[in-house]
Automatic annotation (TrEMBL):
Coiled-coil intervals, chain numbering: 63-90
Keyword Cell division on entry: yes
Record protein name field: Cell division protein ZapA
Pfam family, one: ZapA
Amino acid sequence: MPEVEISVGGRTFDVACQEGEEAFLQAAAAMLDSEASVLVEQTGRIPETRMLLMSGLMLADRTAGVEDKVKGLEDEIAALKAELTALKSAPPPEPQRVEVPVVPNSVTDTLAELAAQAEALADRVEERGTAS
């Protein structure tokens, strides 16, 4: 079982851990050291046991806050999943009737005139093409 030297609040400790867990222990020690350093800065030198107790309590408080936030997010995810499931299983909406406004007669007449002029032009072009 490997032993890892950690530093918490300016004090060094040798701690045993499982093989392969050294990095996790170092990360946890860094978190504890961060809390302990705040205590040492605020109060000066305090007994080791009190420093470790207070640092642990501060981390536990932070962890409880994170757990509450995670629980809230999990509840929100569950609600969103339920809403998504409800939306997916709901029948499709009824088709809506779309009415197109009637084209005024003046526009229809103008289009008919334009078509007649285009046909007349095409006939003239065709006549000139066959006359050549």
